[in-house]
Every structure is written in structure tokens, then in C-alpha cells.
Amino acid sequence: MVSFRRLAAKLCFAALVLFIVLFAVFPFLQMLSMSLKHQWDWGNPSLVPRQINLEAYKELLNIDQMAKNVPESVKILLEESDLTRQQREAILEKYRDSSDIFPFVRYFRNSLLLAVSAALLSVFLAVFGAYSFSRLRYRGQAVVQRGVLFVYMIGGILLLIPLYRMAAAMGLLATPAGTFGALLIIYLVQTLPVSLYMLGNFFRTIPYSIEEAALIEGVSRFGVIWRIILPLAASAIATVFIYAFMIAWNEYLFASVFLKSYQGLYTLPIGLRTLFVSKNAIWDRIMAGSMLTALPVIILFMAIQKKLTGGLSEGGVKG
Amino acid sequence: MRLDLQQKDAVLGWGLILPALLIILSLILYPILSNILSSFYKVSLTGRNTFIGMENYRDIAADPAFWKAVLITFVYVIFSTAGTTLAGLGVALVMNRKFFLRGLVRSLILLPYVAPVFSVVYAWKFFFDPVNGIFMDIMVERLGIFSERFNLIGSPGAALWVAIVFSIWKNFPFTYLMILARLQAVDKTLYEAAEVDGASHWQRFRFITLPEIYFVMGSIVLLRVIWNFNKFEDIYLLTDSVKVLSVYTYFKAFVGTVDLGQGSALVILQFLLLVVFILYYVKKVLRW
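YS: structure for the whole thing
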């Protein structure tokens, strides 16, 4: 009787764990499944596609898209008539460059460029800043440290209007390069407090005696940062970089307002949103796009999972 | 003049923090101050701004849509925070026990928190899609709870609850990690002593676990409230029919007739509401 009750309790527990896992990963399974389904299969509630269809991925990544929009009759015409190579390509070109194609690769590149440069700059500035308020004692040090924490609480929506007005007043929004630059600086400032805070917390865990020894040996402060702190903090710095990268990679609000009139500069979040609202019957491409945008982040995360969860519980990162 | 070591440290300290500080001051502090100022103006991007005193605020207070947005924001913040915290606590208690494949389970359940909002949101949209979505398939075809398929996230009332569930799904991993970290630091001998004294499972949870994690929970709730109060993407991308304050302000300021002055005033009000809450909470719950 007792063992029966224990078995029942065990089963309940297993069911609970299963439920938690399903709750967490179901939307991802849904995403993967839909991205691989043919349109006639969409109404099928099963997660397993009746037939695998890679067309959505091919379209987004621009593989084999050359002759896709060319009508059959034109194709036959092209093959039968004796046009020169150039003439043939000129005709194909007309069909290829339709506005129908979703420039996923370009949006991906824009997002990557913005997120990587913002995160790099943020980490670079934060290494010195965090070293300053976590390692050096001076008047105002505590104020700086608490100020960083305070800034961390301010949401994007509070800054959107004034930053937009500032950028407009400085004339940055008149050119694509200026707009891109403005957005880059905004992403930098959005990630900087988090980077400062996390790195500051990490630097405090490095024993001061190591530094002291080096200082007595006659190494300069910059030497200490370069030769002792940086190597010791390498993994923490990588973690903070990835965090900053993720914040910039996910940003929608500012991008949607700033990039409104520059379609060529769209980042992935606005690109996907535009795709979603502009066309009917796009589930396969939307889901393929979602998979392709989630994957880099998930892979990055899995690579550094142990450290990241450590950083999470120490820093408490915005989200 | 020679500086002693302390002065040298001070110069270096300020020198190192200065670039970061300047950026933060000019792009966070200054904008907030200028925002306060412009909330008293009729703002135009091209021409001159005219001072209109409290008119922006009066317009807002007279707009029933604003009060509705405040109400919706409160419902959203309260239920998403409560749900996230309870789910996080439950999952933390489960993950605190040893079981087969625990490592894998732990990394799998972090996925919602890690994946970008702007991509996972479409999986949720599809789930509730009236034509192809599974939710309607289950509710209409299988269980017959509704007589016909309809667009659940298109109706503001139902969409609010979908947004709350989405928020819980997205954020419970963070809460769970924080609580788990604290749970693992609880002294095991406390439980052993309680067991000897014949305390039940519930009593052990109520009188040992809960007091131990009280302050962690308190801080997590505070952070969650602040973040969810300012939330924009998670709601707007899922459905634009849930007009919480952030979304309401976004529409007022940037969609249709652009009104940056009133937008500024809205943002100030939102910030004040949050500050009042934080002060109250910190005093009562965290007992500072």
C-alpha cells in the first residue's frame, strides 16, 4: 500500500515535470512544425507535417529563387527562342526583382551589424566604468554606483519621445547613415547600464590582493586592467557581451519609430512585423523567419548557459 | 605638484567612468528632464513649440481612453506579476528535487526567456489564429466549448488575458532561477529538525521555506512590476488591441496625428504612477 502511494506520487511528479517542459517548449515546436508545412497542411492540428516543405526557408535565404516568379509561358519562350545570354538574363531580371521578395538576409545583416557594434562598444566602455566604481575609492563613487542601478529601472517608452525629438533636432533623421548612427547610440545607452552593473558585480569577486601585488611590483593601473582583470574576467565579459547583444537584437520600439521611412535599414523585428501585416497566407515564411532569428540567440545562449545563469542570479538582468 | 595615491585613484576613477557617465547623462537623464519640460508645450517637430501650461495634462485627464488604459495596465501588471511569481515558485520547488534528466529539463525551460520576443510572438499568434490555430481547433472541434471559430486575440477583453499568459510564459524562467538559487542556500538541517518534530510538508513549506525566500520573492516582484509596467513589445507585437499605457502612449505620440507634447505628458504620468507604487512597496513589503 505504501509503495503504491509512493509510485502514484512519483507518477504525479513526472507528469508535473512533463507539463512544465511542454508549457515552455510547445510554442517552439509549433514554430518549427509550421515552418515546414505546406499551405494545404496548415489546418492540420498535428505538429508533424504530412510532407516536409523547405520552400519557406529557401525563399528567406534566397536559395534557388532565380526562376521562381517567371511564368511558365515565358520560360518556354526563353528556351525555344534563340536569344543571346544577355537578353535572356535581362528578361529574367524583370521577374526576379519583384517587391514580393522579403529581404530577410538584408534585415538580418542590419540587425547583426547594429547589435554587434552596440554590444562591443557597450562592453568596452563598461569594462573601464565598472572597474572604476567597483575597484577605486573616491568621492562620488557610491553615487555613481547607485545611479547606474537607478537608470537600469527606466523603460524604453519613457525615453522614446525625447530621444526622437533630439535626433530630429540634430538633423540625424534626414539621412540613412545618421538614422542608423542614432539608433546605434541608443542601443549603446540601453545596454550600458546593464553591462556596467553586471561587470561591476563580477569585478568585486576578484580578490584585491592579486591587484595589490601587481601594483607593488610597479605595474600601472592600466597594466593591471589589461594584464590581470581582463584575462580573469574574460568569461564574464563574454557573458555581458551576449546579454548586450540580445537586448539590441530584440529591440523593436525605437527601431520602429526611427527607421519608419528607411525600409532598406529595417532590422529583423520590424521586418518580420512588416511581413506579417502586409501579406496574407504567410505563416510558413513568418515561422521560418522566427526560427532563423531565434536560433542564433538560442545557440549563443546554450554555449554559455552555465555562466549566464550565474550572471542572472547575481545581476538580475532586465527582461 | 605630486598627487598621493588616493588623489591618483580619484583622478583615474573619474577618468575611467567619464565616457560611460557622459553617455548616460546626455541620453537618459537629459531626455527625461527635457521631457518634463516639453509636457507643458504644444510640440511641433518642424515649427516652434508653444507653451500651453497644464493643457496636455487636462486633455489627458478628460480622455476616458486614458483611464481605461490605466485600468488595463493595472490588471495586466497585477495578474502577470502574480502569475509569473507563482509559476516561478512552483517550478523552482519542482527543480529543487533531484530527478532523471534534470539538467536537460532545466535548460529547456529557459528557452522562453532567452528566445527573442519578436519571433516567438508569432507562434503564439498562430496558436490562437481563428482559421488554422490549434486553440480554436480544440475549443470548437474537439471540446465544443465555443460554437464557432473566432479571433480571440482580436477582441480586447480576451486578448488582455492572452497577453498575461504570454507574459507569464516568457518570464517565469527568470523568476524560477532566482528563487531556485535562494532555495539551494537554505540550511538543510532546518528541514531535518522540523521532520523530527513531526511537521507536515505544508508546515515545512509555510514556516521554513517561505520565510527564507520572502525577500528574494519581494525583490523579484518589485522588478517584475517595474518591467511589466513599462512593457511594450511583448504586448504590442502580440496584439494591438490591448491598450496598456505604453501602447496607448505609442499610438498617441506616433500613430495617426502625431502629438509629442501630449505623449510627453503621458510618459510623465506613467513614470509618476510607477514611482508612487515603488515607494509604497519598498516601505511596506521590503520594510526598508
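YS: worth flagging: The longest strand of chain B covers residues 41-42.
IM: good catch. Also The beta strands of chain B are 41-42, 50-51.
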